Amino acid sequence: MQFNFGLFVFFLIGIFLSFSRAAWGNCVLASACYFLFISNIPIKKRVITLLLCLIAGTFLLFYLGNTPLIANLLNERLGMQNYDTERFSTQKAAFEAGFSNLIGMGPGQSDENLEMSTHSLYARLFAENGLIGFLSFFVFFILSMLQALKRTLRSSYQVRGLYSIIFASLVGLIFNSLFIDTLHWRHFWLLLALAWCAEEEINEGMPEPIKIKGR
User: Fold this and answer.
1) What is the pLDDT of the chain when averaged over all its residues?
2) DSSP-assigned states of every residue in 126-193
3) How far apart are CA 163 and CA 202, in angstroms?
4) Phi-psi label, residue 106: left if phi above 0, alpha if psi -120 to 50, beta otherwise
5) What are the DSSP calls for 42-72, one per residue?
6) What is the pLDDT of residue 38?
7) If you average pLDDT over residues 23-35, what whole number do you get?
8) I need a surface site. Which of 18, 138, 147, 184 has the fewest CB within 10 A?
9) Which residues contact 66 (CB under 8 A, 6 or more apart)?
10) CA distances (Å), 93 to each of 106, 111, 115, 123, 174, in order?
11) What angle do CA 22, 134, 119 make, to 5 degrees?
12) Which pLDDT score is estimated for 78?
């Protein structure tokens, strides 16, 4: 328990020091969904873990906030960046291109026809694959999330935690995709596939439960 919590805090520090606003939002949403739906862990233990994370996070922010270099970078990242304007204008142009050509300009063509990468999965999909491609992918994305959520709530105790991780990760990615071309992230497609894996298939890779005599 202590080792896992320490590892969790270590990764949280890494995410914070990435100074990526999209990564921060992804982490907050995914963590919230995980703690909310990880029903195979008692609520008392979840609350204790959440409180420990808040306490550790408060001390970490206080410490880093008093470090001049970190504080300056944090203040800079919390404000609008020069490239944000370019990103938003490119995303606007991508949606305008999608509306002007509802069948899309073709895979990979947004980089050729726009001033810079869209930095948004949704803008890229709409510009390159058109309305039908955009809606098809978005519906598949939502159905995959709902499938993972259903298995989180209905699966057996042994695999419920795995589906909750898949669901929480997809929720984080749906936010992250607003600002990143996640279409090229290989683990994104892996998570979408895992959401549809049957419980029996996942159980095959799980160790056999230890049987205690007399029970």
Assistant:
1) 81
2) HHHHHHHHHHHHHHHHHHHHHHHHHHHHHS-HHHHHHHHHHHHHHHHHHHHTTTS-GGG-HHHHHHHH
3) 10
4) left
5) -HHHHHHHHHHHHHHHHHHHHHHHTSHHHHH
6) 76
7) 86
8) 184
9) none
10) 15, 12, 9, 9, 21
11) 30
12) 65
Tokens 């996070």 map to which residue?
Answer: 57
Lowest mean per-residue pLDDT among 64-78, 164-178, 196-210: 196-210
Q: Can you tell me which residue has the tokens 């995303």?
A: 91
Between 63 and 186, where is the model more confident? 186
Tokens in use for 102?
């509802």
Query: Two tokens at 51?
Result: 């409180």
* Residue 158 in tokens: 């042994």
* pLDDT tens-digit map of 199-212: 765 565 555 544 44
* Region of residue 130 (left: phi > 0; alpha: psi -120 to 50; beta: else): left
**Sole residue written with tokens 């919230």:** 32
Crossing angle between the packed helical segments 121-154 and 21-37, to the nearest 10 degrees: 20
Residue 177, both tokens: 């995709």
Q: Give the global pTM.
A: 0.77
Per-residue tokens: 182? 């996640």
Distance of alpha carbon 148 from alpha carbon 171, whole angstroms: 10
